[in-house]
Amino acid sequence: MNRRNPQLNRHGELIHLLSTEGLPRDILLHILDTAQQFVSVNDREVKKVPLLRGKSVFNLFFENSTRTRTTFEIAATRLSADVFNLDIARSSTAKGETLLDTIANLSAMAADIFVVRHSESGAPYLIAQHVAPHVHVINAGDGRHAHPTQGLLDMYTIRHYKGDFRNLSVAIVGDVLHSRVARSDIHALTTLGCPDVRVVGPRTLVPSDLAQLGVRVCHSLQEGIRDCDVVIALRLQNERMSGALLPSSQEFHQSFGLTPQRLRWAKPDAIVMHPGPVNRGVEIDSSVVDGAQSVVLPQVTFGIAVRMAVMGIIAGNEA
Ligand code: CP
User: How does this polypeptide assemble, per the annotation (predicted)?
Assistant: First the structure.
């Protein structure tokens, strides 16, 4: 493991995926290029390659998930791995077993890759520090911190529809404060050379100090999405809000909800993305989610190939 970046080995190769922050541009592009090859596997009648035959992938989702958990399972299955989904609610976590004891016991069952979602920021880092050198950890979302495979599938989607990042304006709209997706997108977009990344929303959900990340902070939707190529709407994360950050969901929608009329402020061919799950009528109207500019469902489909690429790459590298 590299002391300065625990995701990389001493040769600078990816051994864990914990965050898009600190990942070099060439690694990001290698993941996107590898995913592009796997998209064609997913179009075949027999959607299997033997890359992870004999390997065991353990999905540990301590928080709920539909898209991430399922697409990781599909991705690992298509790579011919054996996949085990731990049912956390029925596991001995409920009896008070610690996270690291759970990992140690699953490691004793010959786990090769742990895919971990956890409400505590940093939980996948802790696990990565304690697993054996041949075991790999993928962060499937930790607290507010990072959701790197969502960030990568977002990059895949943007490149697929819009091409070179160096010509694009991308607006990330809504509850940026609580969004691990926003942070992962911002780090990936800036590393890939996107010259105009904007974060857009009310002051309580888009703190001005985000400008330190190299993005433009906008508290007006019209200014924030004006002439942009990509609009990424974020879910209002009521479950992570403590205190009165917002008067109400309705007031949020009145100022920042993405409607067909407001989408006209972006470029006419702008794409609309959302990581899901969607609060229809809050951060985005149904007619936009289901509309011609929406690429929300292709994002999900690309997520399979991107997760295949990440697992295939890290499994090929040694600590
Ligand atoms: N985008 C995303 O992380 O969705 P899930 O919570 O359903 O996995």
Answer: Heterododecamer (2C3:3R2) of six catalytic PyrB chains organized as two trimers (C3), and six regulatory PyrI chains organized as three dimers (R2).
